[in-house]
Structure formats: structure tokens, C-alpha cells
Design goal:
Chain lengths: ~230, ~170
């Protein structure tokens, strides 16, 4: 069993998600550069940690040169060694999580719905009916532009999480937004989603059934009226 | 009513695994674990779900009672979320959104092993989807409307002819 299989088994990450309702979906995945970007960010934080640990070594050395009791110096050295061991374990685990987070991502688009699966520690599966989509946006930061990737943002009606509201929440993700993160064909996805939204008969808010019934009722009433008129004149 | 409907309507209580999850997550708080544990104990033991033709209602609480009722037709998004402990216990949370202005989920269905079935069931009932499927033969209402309007036209023609004869 490879490290990947055992990690996925231990974390009980479910395999490929079920396709959303509607036609067989088009499946999009995060671009390889998305992994690169995540790796760069993660690497920078690791560098900061290394800098802190090196500073701690220098500090322990300086304490050893002063007239501090031997016991305290030993204690500090033991803490230092423990910190290095923990750091090594964290580097390995962190890399595995970054890698799996990149691999375990699915963005599915059928003719009726969008389904987005992401996350390792917390697995999230969002399903949004295209009929409920309100707007679509593409976001791209400077680093993302360099790497040729972007995030497609699909919003439904309701709750714009204000920052205060967001802080109170357990998982820092707005509920009415779905992201296609780190895709290299953002414009294509946007066009496909727009097309999918356009062909929905009842898009946006409002009761979808009302209009149809109304026109039928109106037509029937008109018919009744016209019949009455004929009967009155003959 | 399909057998799926009947199976979903039969759900009233969360699985005992939910209580195990509550106990585990209370212990994560540390020495003050008994405070969330008391709350979770009563939450688990008073939690009731009711699925019916029109919507779901969920209630819990002993001192402060809460009851949430949602209509299927108003559901917008359905999210499935699970952390690692929940996955070890084969659980997941179904977070249901309507178009209201709150950032958090309107209703979180917890403690069901058959979360995927429930999610798919809700999905077939929610707004946008239900409307699309019930009007699948889109030609029928259009034809009805056209036929009615044609009837109106012929009636009016008859009126005109009747008036012309006078």
C-alpha cells in the first residue's frame, strides 16, 4: 500500500464523489500549478518556522555561556530537540496534506447542477442547482496570474457573510458560494456555467410554478368571458 | 409515493453514533468537557426529525427549545460536510441553505448514516430541480395554452358572426 492509500484510508476520505443530478457531468480538476502555488505558500511558512528554530539554537547557546544553572540549560536543550522532532513530523504531514488536498478535488458540472468536492481534514461536498445561481465571477491574484490559474466563484442568493458573522462560524467558508479553485481554464468554465444557467427555464428567485399557472388561468377566464358574451348576444 | 420517500419519512431519530461523536468532541475541550457534554446529552436525546410531503422539521432542546421547519421547495444549496471524527463514525452533516440572509446554514441535519440518500432525496425535491422535472415534457403546457387561446379566438369569431347577422 502506498503512503497515499494508507493516508486516505486513515483519514477515511471518500473516493470520487457521486455525479450530480442531470446529464453525465463534465469533471474539472485543479491545475498542477495550483499545487505549485500551495507548495510555495506552505514552503514559506516552513522557512519561517526554521528561522525561529535556528534563533532558538542561538538563544540556547547564549544561555549556556552565561552563569545559568546547568539544569535549566539542559531543559532548554531538551525543548529544542523536541521542537526539531515535532517540526520534522509536521513537515512530512504538512506536505502530505498539501498534496492530497490538491489531488482530492473535483469540480463537476452537469446540465442541472454543480457539485464541488474539496478538503481533506474536513471534507466538503457542495451541490448547487444551476437554476439557483445568481452570479459568476473569476478571481485571480498576481501569483495566480503568473502561474496561469484562477478561481471561478459561483454565488447563489442570500447571506453575504459579514466578517463578524464569519468569525463566529466553525468553518470559514461562506455557504452561498462555491469555488472552482485553481483551474487553468477559468474562462471556459465560466462560459459553460453561464450557458447552463441560461437554458434553465426558471432562473433566480421567485416561485417557478406561478407564471405558468397564471397564464393558463387567464386564458381559461378569457374563454369563459367570450362564451358568456356570445350567449348574451345570441 | 416511492419507496425512497417512505424510507426517508421513517427517519425520526439520529443514530447513536451521533452521541459518541458528541462525547468525543466534548473531550476535545479539555477539563471543562462536562459543560458541552451536558448540553450535547440533552441535544441528542431530544433531537427529532420529521420528513413529510412538504418539508422537514427538526427540533431539540430541553430548557431552550428550538424547532426549525423548512419547505423543500425553498431549499437552495445542500452541502455535505464531515470532519475526520465524523468519518470514522460514518457520519456527515447535511447543511441546508435557503435564500435567507444568514451566512450559516439554516438547518444542519446531523447523525444520519444514510446522509447521501437523504441528500439525493432532498435534491430531487428542492427548488429549481423539482420545477425542471415536473415540466419535463415542456410541450404540454404550451400546447394547452395554445389550444385555449385558439378556443378563445373561435369564440370571438362566433360572436362577431352573431353580431353581423343582426
Amino acid at each position: 500500500m502506498s503512503w497515499r492509500d494508507s493516508a486516505l484510508h486513515f483519514l477515511r476520505v471518500p473516493p470520487t464523489p457521486e455525479p450530480p443530478p442531470g446529464s453525465p457531468p463534465q469533471v474539472f480538476r485543479a491545475a498542477p500549478n495550483f499545487f505549485k502555488l500551495r507548495l510555495i505558500r506552505w514552503g514559506l511558512t516552513q522557512l519561517l518556522a526554521v528561522a525561529g528554530l535556528l534563533w532558538a539554537i542561538a538563544f540556547v547557546g547564549w544561555v549556556g555561556s552565561t552563569k545559568t544553572p546547568r539544569a535549566i540549560v539542559w531543559l532548554l536543550t531538551a525543548g529544542e530537540i523536541f521542537a526539531w522532532v515535532a517540526f520534522t513530523a509536521e513537515v512530512v504531514l504538512g506536505w502530505i496534506l498539501v498534496r492530497l488536498d490538491y489531488e482530492m478535488r473535483w469540480y463537476m458540472l452537469s446540465d442541472r447542477a454543480i457539485r464541488i468536492r474539496e478538503g481533506i481534514a474536513t471534507v466538503r461536498e457542495k451541490t448547487i442547482a444551476l437554476a439557483n445561481v445568481q452570479n459568476i465571477a473569476i478571481r485571480q491574484g498576481p501569483l495566480q496570474r503568473l502561474l496561469g490559474i484562477a478561481d471561478v466563484e459561483v454565488k447563489t442568493a442570500g447571506g453575504g457573510g459579514t466578517s463578524a458573522e464569519m468569525n463566529g462560524k466553525k468553518h470559514g467558508e461562506p455557504m452561498h458560494v462555491a469555488y472552482f479553485r485553481g483551474v487553468d481554464n477559468a474562462a471556459e468554465i465560466r462560459d459553460l456555467v453561464r450557458e447552463g444557467v441560461r437554458v434553465q427555464r426558471n432562473a433566480g428567485l421567485g416561485d417557478p410554478d406561478e407564471q405558468e399557472d397564471d397564464s393558463m388561468v387567464a386564458a381559461a377566464e378569457l374563454l369563459r368571458e367570450a362564451r358568456a358574451l356570445r350567449e348574451a348576444t345570441t | 409515493m416511492s419507496s425512497l420517500d417512505l424510507r426517508i419519512f421513517a427517519i425520526h431519530r439520529p443514530s447513536p453514533a451521533l452521541f459518541r461523536y458528541y462525547v468525543l468532541s466534548s473531550f476535545l475541550v479539555g477539563p471543562l468537557f462536562f459543560i458541552p457534554l451536558i448540553y450535547f446529552y440533552f441535544r441528542y436525546h431530544t433531537m427529532r426529525y420529521d420528513f413529510d410531503e412538504e418539508g422537514i422539521s427538526m427540533r431539540w432542546g430541553i430548557l431552550f427549545r428550538r424547532e426549525i421547519t423548512l419547505t423543500y421547495a425553498r431549499i437552495q444549496d445542500i452541502h455535505l460536510t464531515s470532519n475526520i471524527i465524523e468519518r470514522w463514525l460514518r457520519l456527515a452533516r447535511i447543511q441546508i441553505q435557503t435564500a435567507s440572509a444568514s451566512a450559516a446554514a439554516e438547518m444542519t441535519i446531523e447523525g444520519l448514516h444514510e446522509f447521501e440518500t437523504v441528500r439525493d432525496f432532498l435534491y430531487t425535491k428542492m427548488r429549481g430541480v423539482r420545477a425542471a422535472t415536473s415540466h419535463q415534457p415542456t410541450a404540454t403546457p404550451q400546447n394547452d395554452l395554445a389550444a385555449a387561446l385558439r378556443d378563445v379566438a373561435s369564440e370571438l369569431r362566433a360572436v362577431r358572426e352573431a353580431l353581423e347577422k343582426r
